Amino acid sequence: MRLSRAVSSPVGLLTLIVSGRGLARVCFAGELVDHDAGSGRKNPGLSGPGGEERMDPAATAVLDDTERQLKEYFAQQRRSFDIPLDWSADTGSALTCPRSAQQRNGHTPNDFTMQVLHGLLQIGYGQRWSYGKLATELGHPGAARAVGSACGRNPIPIIVPCHRVVHADGSMGGYRGGGTVKRFLLELEAVQEQANGRR
């Protein structure tokens, strides 16, 4: 069972897709692809004011926790997330974010991509690492480009902070949510870090 919910945020509407195992996707506005559009079939679990049609207590709890923690993050009241993640890549959802061919075929991300995604979780709030630094930290010096590609396949942006990875010269680099969103997230965290430094 999977559920989704659209939540408003300072970076636009975010759609959260969860399973009973955890948060599986965070999609930015305009990213969702309705695979059932025009089929006349109702999208299961995607109706009602919160987006939930059929209730799964575990999935609903993950939705509630994710929405609450995102609100705290954007209000600069949270620096890390405590949410179970479902890396299975196939939520069974009629509405999905754009995915790689590997993910569209129902396979989980490959080992290297998973290593990068887990590595992203080690980058602290307000920090900026280069793609090269992350590659080196993961034991793959010289693999900056491959790390960048893996970051682009991150199904759970913001929570898994690929926005904290930039080019070695400090320029933003790519981001699924767009450069404006990436800059906003980095500046949001930088402002909070500066405020903490003045205390």
From TrEMBL:
The keyword Repeat does not apply. CDD domains: ATase. GO terms for molecular function: methylated-DNA-[protein]-cysteine S-methyltransferase activity. Residues 8-86 form the Methylguanine DNA methyltransferase ribonuclease-like domain. It catalyses: a 6-O-methyl-2'-deoxyguanosine in DNA + L-cysteinyl-[protein] = S-methyl-L-cysteinyl-[protein] + a 2'-deoxyguanosine in DNA; a 4-O-methyl-thymidine in DNA + L-cysteinyl-[protein] = a thymidine in DNA + S-methyl-L-cysteinyl-[protein]. GO terms for biological process: DNA repair; methylation. It is an enzyme of class 2 (transferase). Residues 111-191 form the Methylated-DNA-[protein]-cysteine S-methyltransferase DNA binding domain. Keywords: DNA damage, DNA repair, Methyltransferase, Transferase. Its EC number is 2.1.1.63. It comes from the Bacteria. Coiled coil: none annotated. Gene3D superfamilies: Methylated DNA-protein cysteine methyltransferase domain, Winged helix-like DNA-binding domain superfamily/Winged helix DNA-binding domain. Belongs to the MGMT family. NCBIfam families: ogt. This is methylated-DNA--[protein]-cysteine S-methyltransferase.
